[in-house]
Amino acid sequence: MTPIYTVSPSPEKGLGCFSTKLIPTGTLILSETPLFNVREPRTNAAVLAAFLNITKSEQENYLTLYAQTATTRDAKVIDIFNSNAWQTGSRTSICPQAARFNHSCVPNASFAWNSRLGKVTVHAVTAIPANTEILLSYERPYQVGSARREKLSAYGFVCSCVACGSGAEASDIRRARMVLLDARIRCQRRQLWRSAIPKAEVELVRILKEEAIVGEALGLAHHDAAVGWRKYGRVDLAVRHAAKELEICIICFGPDSSSVDTTRAFLLELKAQLAKESLLVSEPVLLAEGVSHSTGRRPPRPIWAVYRA
Ligand SMILES: C[S@@+](CC[C@H](N)C(=O)[O-])C[C@H]1O[C@@H](n2cnc3c(N)ncnc32)[C@H](O)[C@@H]1O
């Protein structure tokens, strides 16, 4: 069977990963067990020790990965680690295949750590046409271009994706707004009481879509919108956002991820709450007839009799 992607030269980016055929949204592109990992906060000594612990052929494979500038062998081992490692829970791991994916601030694929499988995964977050580079984001999306440039300079490159190039002006306006909305939402998360309409959360969902950020960040924005609508008392709208969150979660992490279980449980909890509320609304009709919905007998003093007013 033809592999779903190949590794080949990418203009200005060294090697990169290219689709060999159309990859539908949600497709698992790669799942890989780390070659080695180190606990964070890491030291250079820990990286060198972990490197010396793998087999000679694994070391040779590791040393073929991209390095920026390195004079000695030890410096090269550290340099490769810093340029290619991904965060995997509380550790940082080297996955030689995942290390070949280049960056875009508007990625078409999503990287994740699946602790249940002990593997990293890469899923398509959009439909990726044949012969297209598969790109992951190395950075959080809620940053304007200048902030992203500074972070990405640590990897020794200047990004030329649509958000950094031709569409930079419009993108920066949206990203600046995202930074603001994100800060507002973080603040509101600590608020437990019933609140106002979750305007910031809903706007963040809209702007992320406009910016074509459709992965994990959009899933989280839908989650926050669901929480906001529930606090406001519109559980029906909360259910809609939680359903979108679950859909995105499955796309980004795969159906076997524990994050999907958590998200599904949240949706089920909201659906149960909605069903209960619908029942409370319909019960008064039965009460008017003097019959309990559940037992068929005359009900005890109903706490929701207010609905009859
Ligand atoms: C994890 S490696 C990715 C694979 C690498 N291109 C290779 O040849 O193995 C990270 C390095 O790839 C290059 N790179 C990744 N994304 C890039 C981009 N959008 N533009 C230019 N270079 C990029 C940078 O040199 C970066 O340090």
From TrEMBL:
SMART domains: SET. Residues 3-139 form the SET domain. PANTHER family: SET DOMAIN-CONTAINING PROTEIN 5, SET-6. This is SET domain-containing protein. It comes from Paraphaeosphaeria sporulosa. The lineage of its organism: Eukaryota, Fungi, Dikarya, Ascomycota, Pezizomycotina.
